[in-house]
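If it is no trouble, can you show me the amino acids of a protein and the tokens describing how it folds?
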Amino acid sequence: EHAGIVDAIIDGDAARAEAAMKAHLEGSLGRYRDLLRENS
């Protein structure tokens, strides 16, 4: 995920960087929620 964000930034593609960052944040949120549910 991070590589996709960085690649988009290096390429100067703001729309792709934004989409990659949103996908990353949504994925991270889901992973953290799953982790918290498993540990509660």
Notes: The helical segments are 2-10, 14-38.
